[in-house]
Amino acid sequence: MSTTAGKAEATRKEGKKEGGLKEGSLKEGSLAPAFDLPGAGGEKISLAALKGKKVVLYFYPKDDTSGCTKEAIEFNALRESFAKAKAVVVGMSPDPIKNHDKFRAKYELSLPLASDEGKDTLGAYGVWVEKSMYGRKYMGVERTTVLIGTDGRIARIWRKVKVPGHAEEVLAAAKAL
């Protein structure tokens, strides 16, 4: 078992997520956990740098898989509409930067993609969870979107996201905020 997997397993057994938050403790109205991560294209992506803006932070499991690709394309297509709503869209997964760079190039994505290989931010937001497929349990990203208001507080959380139409729903919420 890798060190990261071992840490995730240990925190899961303790009833916590990585980052020290108990499962489900991040709620609407909570202060959004800070992050400072590398991004695709050599960008540095931090919540502090986005202070005063609405932030749509969408967490996805893996670059270049069908659901994650559809989600990225939908958010990317609405990027100008989000900008008019004074919102910045940032995608985040545990994939390394080189994967993000290939993903962005392949699908001509212009939205920022943050890499959280250490999974600290994923844990802080409660999206690094135990999953199960075909009876096998493993740790992974639960597809989630968080809308952060200009005050740095979480305005809305969408958990276990179904991709079709989701970006439009988030845009409507960002406009209403």
Low-confidence stretches: 1-23
Rg, rounded, reads 15 Å
Structure classification: alpha/beta
Shape summary: globular
Spatial arrangement of strands, main beta sheet = 5-4-3-8-9
How confident is the prediction overall: mean pLDDT? 87
Task: State the end-to-end CA separation.
Answer: 43 Å
Helix count? 6
Helix proportion of residues, in percent? 25-40%
Q: Please give the largest β-sheet.
A: 5 strands, mixed
Strand composition percent: 15-25%
Give the helices and strands, then pairings.
Blueprint: H1 3-13, E1 36-38, E2 44-46, E3 54-59, H2 66-77, H3 79-84, E4 87-93, H4 97-107, E5 113-115, H5 120-124, E6 128-133, E7 136-141, E8 144-148, E9 154-158, H6 166-176
Parallel strand pairs: 3-4, 4-5
Antiparallel strand pairs: 1-2, 3-8, 6-7, 8-9
Summarize the structure.
By secondary structure, the chain is of the alpha/beta class. Helices cover 32% and strands 25% of the residues.
Describe this structure as you would to a colleague.
The structure is a single chain. With 177 residues, this protein is an alpha/beta fold. Helix content is 32%, strand content 25%. The protein contains 6 helices and 9 strands; from the N terminus they run αβββααβαβαββββα. It has helices spanning 3-13, 66-77, 79-84, 97-107, 120-124, 166-176, and strands spanning 36-38, 44-46, 54-59, 87-93, 113-115, 128-133, 136-141, 144-148, 154-158. The strands form 3 sheets. A 5-stranded mixed sheet has the order 5-4-3-8-9. It is globular. The N and C termini lie far apart (43 Å). The relative contact order is 0.21. Residues 1-23 have low confidence and may be disordered.
